[in-house]
Amino acid sequence: MAVARFARSATVVVSSVVFAAVGTTHAMAEPARGPATDPVAVRAALERTVAAGAPGAFAVVRDHNRSGGTARIAVGKASLDGTPMKSNWRFRVGSNTKMFTSALTLRLADQGRLDLDKPVRDYLPDGTLPVGWGMTVRQVLQHRSGIYDHSDDLLEQSGEETTSVFEKRIRNTVYTPSELVALSVKHGPQFTPGARYSYSNTNYVLLGMAIAHITGNSYEETLRTEIIEPLGLTHTSYVVPDREIDGAHVTGYLTNDDRTKPLLDSTEQNGSWVGSSGAVISSAADLDRFLTALMAGSAGELISDESLRQMTSVLPTSTANVSYGLGLREISLSCGKVYGHGGIVQGYQTQSFATRDGGRTVVVFANASNNSAVTQGLTNTLEPAFCGTKPPTAPKSQRSADPGPAGDARTGSAVPEVPVVDDTRF
């Protein structure tokens, strides 16, 4: 079925009440389905994230069911100049961009302009991929294409980015999508397409190129006209290769390779090295609106029901309790499965997830990267935000001890750890 152009009036708008701000926490009403958020445990997880090295962190939890409420919990600083963390400011979303790119790809499939099970090479400019490379669009969306991740070459390692390489190759150097793909192609196919999962940013650079080739417009223009403007995402943009973030925004900090040195302000950077795989700028409110339109929008509002079914049909990854569909990650929490994506780009990391019916969305954010403890702390926020899990209280004799990276020293309870995926950079 073809996707109809959606009007701004179709945007899902739910009245909300702000229940929490810096310094205080109040309970949210329980949604029609599922457990209530545990704001005390959410705050504890955010505070652990800051203690691990992030200047600040926040969580925005929105219920679109009976309560219709929003919880905003922020701790720490939006900037080392002392500005408190602001949960309504803009930031770089990293690989949350992949959800936007996937939605654009599926819109083209709904319109009959692209077949998910044909080679992605058929939808690219001639010569982009070698003759004989038959990985399909679906396999590219699933990270099962066997295409090498070009970012491993740029960062000189698999794992977290480094300050030295950031200044040398990332902050100012402008790459074209075709240059990024060429970096990947020289390594040849890594395995038979479809054989296994292997996260590769090059997959979504190729999809951005396919979108531009099919539509005749740039990725930026297509994103703006097909998603940003129709959904009223007033804080979302794709400005590659510009380095600045317009408007009020959180300052991002890259943890120095030498931990004795101060954090590096990495806010200004051009995103060309990740492009359509990771260079979108947005806000928590816009990510909520996008996820809600994707998961709970009326049929055809963003993609067809069949495309959403395929998008959420997942296959295993190398991380337990984490699976991957078509640009959406599925995480199994104690109260059920949630769908969305994570993103880490120099100075910023975000996790954006929703229940399958779109009834609850959670966006958690920290303004530091190159620090695995920050990543784990932030990811641990998802469990109390979605499930409100309250494990048994530790004996009084143990409460004065350090409860560990996921615990809450004030209550003695521990927030269950959520698995951190293998692609911790993005």
What does this structure look like?
The protein is of the alpha+beta class. It has helices at residues 39-51, 97-110, 137-141, 151-155, 163-170, 177-185, 201-215, 219-231, 284-296, 305-311, 372-379, 382-387, and strands at 56-63, 70-76, 91-92, 253-254, 264-265, 281-282, 315-316, 322-324, 329-333, 336-345, 348-355, 360-366, 368-369. An 8-stranded antiparallel beta sheet has the order 2-1-12-11-10-9-8-7, sandwiched between helices. The protein has a 3-stranded mixed beta sheet with strand order 5-4-13. Strands 3-6 form a two-stranded antiparallel ribbon. A hairpin with a 2-residue loop joins strand 10 and strand 11 (348-355). The longest helix has 15 residues, at 201-215. Residues 1-32 and 391-413 have low confidence and may be disordered.
Please give the largest β-sheet: 8 strands, antiparallel
| Uncertain runs | 1-32, 391-413
Overall average pLDDT: 86
Number of helix segments? 12
Shape: globular
Task: Write the topology of this structure.
Layout: H1 39-51, E1 56-63, E2 70-76, E3 91-92, H2 97-110, H3 137-141, H4 151-155, H5 163-170, H6 177-185, H7 201-215, H8 219-231, E4 253-254, E5 264-265, E6 281-282, H9 284-296, H10 305-311, E7 315-316, E8 322-324, E9 329-333, E10 336-345, E11 348-355, E12 360-366, E13 368-369, H11 372-379, H12 382-387
Parallel strand pairs: 4-13
Antiparallel strand pairs: 1-2, 1-12, 3-6, 4-5, 7-8, 8-9, 9-10, 10-11, 11-12
Helix pairs in contact: 1-11, 2-7, 6-7
Task: Give a quick precis of the structure.
This protein is of the alpha+beta class. Helix content is 27%, strand content 14%. The protein has helices spanning 39-51, 97-110, 137-141, 151-155, 163-170, 177-185, 201-215, 219-231, 284-296, 305-311, 372-379, 382-387; strands spanning 56-63, 70-76, 91-92, 253-254, 264-265, 281-282, 315-316, 322-324, 329-333, 336-345, 348-355, 360-366, 368-369.
